[in-house]
DNA sequence: ATAAGTTGATAACAGATTGATAACAAATAT
DNA sequence: ATATTTGTTATCAATCTGTTATCAACTTAT
């Protein structure tokens, strides 16, 4: 399953509204992640690096704009849209001062919400979050990191390139010649084919030390494929 | 708070409103340039490169959103806020679709307008009146100063540019080529890649002498990223 | 079924590459 | 003229990556 789409976090304690927002965003091609409170959101932000946040202000335990201010204090720069019933002038001002990018008051028009999301993403220079997922692997291309079940796994440059190539081509057997050209390029003239085995092996050990997940399936006499 | 050098174009055919908008923006430190129609605006954009545009839709001879769509077609990427009485759902949608970044309906609250202008400028990377934070670093762009835990840290011009570039691109590994282009520019033709190491190192030592905070994480064979 | 041959897995090693750091020199600004 | 900034070079240290050797697994021919 390939995914290069844009992910949006929504924090809203009223379930129907949360569902409504998620429905419209998904319909427009966004991936969404809903939360009923700010709990666990910070962890999620770190792990997933979503592209945008929509947040209510009247949340249980935590006031939405204070939460955003806190995030900003720690350098989190995610685009934020407040979606809230708090519509007094002072409320709106506070929302922007605390780091919001846009402020929509309830009741809201779903179509306008989507357009404002798109406008904000455009202006933030976000076209796609460039994350590729495969089974429980999450490859963050610009960040050059691999996350497996919320654990960061360190990869070398070569290993990253190799894994990227495989995840870009799932369910396809990549033969040794292809891998040599793709990963090692031209200078692989006098190139020991065992090098591929060794490199795959090192990668295997890093992302699946126990060997139980069988990510790389050897295809005899040909190459490997991702399983 | 000074916003010298940030210039905002306002296109509005009702003179009182134009004056009102200009008054509030100037009070917040912006330079303004008002137009009663779209006439001569294009020429002004080319010559002055203003940072933001506020535009009415019901203008004599020309519909504001069509004007913006036209600008966009020719590659003009200036942040645009519509300020208009056209408040039907379809009007608002049209405003965003034609390239607007924000949409404010009349009657409007001047304070909110200013805040929306500031938010949009911030998000557009026009930060000269802003501070950028990352972890415990506070970068004051107009003053070109760095504060760490309330201590002023002296940076050279080059170091400031480098740190700014990294903070503008969090969660992204910046490769050596990008850094060379971005920081050193074109004249880096015969350019020793070790220069990057050395410069990063000097910066590291200034902002984290003990090396315990690990701001700059080397990515082997690629570049660095902010940690 | 089995043995021979081929291919892949794994570990250890060594060379190569890359980054860190310090010292120096050139350039620039004050 | 002096101080500061910036680029270069040299040395050292860390890490990567290709090679080799050995063992294990698979294929095929008999």
Can you give a write-up of this model?
Two copies of one chain form a homodimer. Chain A is built from eight helices and twelve strands. Chain A has 227 residues and is α/β, with parallel strands linked by helices. Chain A folds into two domains: 7-123, Response regulator (Rossmann fold); 131-226, Orthogonal Bundle (Arc Repressor Mutant, subunit A), CATH 1.10.10. In chain A, strand 3 (52-55), helix 3 (64-73) and strand 4 (80-84) form a beta-alpha-beta unit. Chain A is elongated and about 70 Å long. Chains A and B meet through helix 4 and helix 5 of A and helix 4 and helix 5 of B. The first copy, chain A, binds a DNA duplex (30 and 30 nucleotides) through residues 156-158, 191-195, 197-202, 204-205, 218, 220-221.
Strand order of the largest sheet of chain A: 2-1-3-4-5
- Main sheet specs of chain A: 5 strands, parallel
Largest interface: A-B, 33 and 35 residues
The CATH level-2 architecture of the largest domain in chain A is identified as 3-Layer(aba) Sandwich
Radius of gyration of chain A: 22 Å
Q: Could you tell me the number of beta strands of chain A? A: 12
Q: What does the overall shape of chain A look like?
A: elongated
Q: What would you call the quaternary organization?
A: homodimer
What share of the residues of chain A lie within helices? Answer: 25-40%
Extract low-pLDDT stretches of chain A. Answer: none
Provide the residue-averaged pLDDT of chain A.
91
* Count of discrete structural domains of chain A: 2
Give the C-level CATH assignment of the largest domain in chain A.
Answer: Alpha Beta
Q: Encode the helix/strand succession of chain A as letters.
A: EHEHEHEHEHEEEEHEHHEE
Strand percent estimate of chain A:
15-25%
Number of helices of chain A: 8
CATH homologous superfamily classification of the largest domain in chain A: Response regulator
Distance between the termini of chain A: 12 Å
